[in-house]
Amino acid sequence: MNEHTTAGAAPTSSVAAPTVPALSVHELRKTYPGSGPGNGVEALKGVSLDVEQGDFFALLGPNGAGKSTLIGIVSSLVNLSGGSVEVFGTDLARNRDAAMRLIGLVPQELNFNMFEKPLDILVNYAGFYGIPREEALARAEQELRRAHLWDKARMMSRTLSGGMKRRLMIARAMMTRPRLLILDEPTAGVDIEIRRGMWQTLREINAAGTTIILTTHYLEEAESLCRNLAIIDRGSIVAAGPMKALLARLDVEGFLFDIDGQLPERLPAIEGATLIATDDHTLDVEMPRSMDLNRVFAALGDAGIRVRSMRTKSNRLEELFVRMTGENAVNGATDSTAQVAPEPTA
């Protein structure tokens, strides 16, 4: 930054001005009416959440937790019962049109005309937002190339594979150059190879400056892509913060050991660890994160058990998710938000 000033000009500050969040929801509530007075369904119970500009943010929760309602309110498809929503500082209730111009939404359902060509789908979509046709055509080529669909641009969309249709949905949402892209289960029903290709596309979109909010049931996907997350259950946020900080809350680790030969009937006792034979050649080990893994190997070796290979038992985010939503199911959802302090910066 150039800190020199000219006569009459205000001095330039070297401190960056604070930025408003890409998305800020405060005390958001939604009650769906029931069949009679007083028996409505409270889908959101005072949810407060900020998503910073440029973030790749995961919104996780079991079915019926309130994710779809929250996304529906933010994208102006569902009316809120209380609270507020701001998109880059623009209040959704006061200036809906301006807020919506900042958002791109990729819903879970495929909702384009299967008898249109991908190029026409993108150009017509841009036309709804007043983008001139010449500019729309240029953007459509750019987005279809990024989605690896340019060679399919003039084919009937119904002939595309499931993964191609998902990529087409993302390309369509990007036609308006949204500053905030909301993805609701974007890789549902596609195989792992296609899913990983879509991950790369989403990383490129995020790296170019677009803030992304992702809902997914593939927890590996969230852990691979996202820097921050919130877990919602029964209409309340039960945990929110940086991905690494939340995962660090896990105090145990699980491993599966593949054993050479056959496991003995009596397994060695290792203080602090739990050993379970899942079959004659596989050992399930759960141990505190602080425990030295060499202790386990030494005890197994003393018992004549030789480990041929090992792998983590489960996705770490999946374990955290099950614990948070499982505890909530037992103890009852609360309106409090379990916040995790941001990680210290160097």
TrEMBL record:
Cross-referenced InterPro entries: AAA+_ATPase, ABC_transporter-like_ATP-bd, ABC_transporter-like_CS, ABC_transporter_ATP-binding, P-loop_NTPase
Family matches, as Pfam families: ABC_tran
GO terms assigned for molecular function: ATP binding; ATP hydrolysis activity
Keywords: ATP-binding, Nucleotide-binding, Transport
SUPFAM superfamilies: P-loop containing nucleoside triphosphate hydrolases
Positions of the ABC transporter domain: 23-259
CDD domains assigned: ABC_DR_subfamily_A (cd03230)
Full protein name: ATP-binding cassette domain-containing protein
Organism in which the protein naturally occurs: Marilutibacter maris
